[in-house]
Amino acid sequence: xxxxxxxxxxxxxxxxxxHHNATxxxxxxxxxxxxxxxxxxxxxxxxxxxxxxACTSLPEIPxxxxxxxxxxxxxxxxxxxxxxxxxxxAEAVETAIRMEEIVERQRNRMAEIQExxxxxxxxxxxxxxxxxxxxxxxxxxxxVKKTVKEENRDRTYMMRAEAQRRDLLLARIEEEQWIRRSExxxxxxxxxxxxxxxxxxxxxxxxx
Length: 208
Hints:
Blueprint: H1 12-30, H2 41-51, H3 73-77, H4 89-118, E1 122-124, E2 130-132, H5 138-166, H6 170-184, E3 190-194, E4 202-206
Parallel strand pairs: 1-3
Antiparallel strand pairs: 1-2, 3-4
C-alpha cells in the first residue's frame, strides 16, 4: 500500500476549526439579530396606535381644506370681560383694535410729552390729563396745544374703556390715573394737587 506522505497532516481540532469557519457565514445569515431596530417617529407612533386595544380604526385625515385658513390674532387678545359689560363680540374686537392703536400712538409721543414737561410747559391735572401751564407763542405754541389735545383725546378714550370694563364711574378712573401719573412724575414737573385750604379744590405745584 502506498502512503501519500505529501499530504500535510492536520489534527482533528484543526479540521473542526475549518468546518466551523466554513459554516459560520451561513449560520449568521439565518440567525435573527438581537440589536434594536431604529424606527422613525411616524412609524413608531403608528405602531402604538395599532397596538392600543381601544383603537380599532384610524381616523380619517383630510388632505385638503375646504376654505383657506384665516388667523385673527387680535381676536385672541380680546378680554372676555369686554363681552360681559354690554359689548357685542364685533364691538369688543373694534375696541381692542382701537386701544392697541392708541397705545402705539402714546408710545411714540412719550418723548415729546416729556420734553414739554421738562420745559415746564405742561403738567398733570387731577383728571389724569395734561394741561398747558405756559404756552409759547407762534408755531411752537400751536404744536404744544396740538400735542396736548391729541394726548388727552387718547387718554380719555382709554379711561372710559377702563371704566366700562370695571363698571366704575369715570371720575374714579380719572382719580386713579392722576395718582399714578403724579407718582411717576419727576422732580420739578408741574402737578395739580389737592388744596388743603379749599374742600374739593386743587392747586398747581412743582413736584419736590
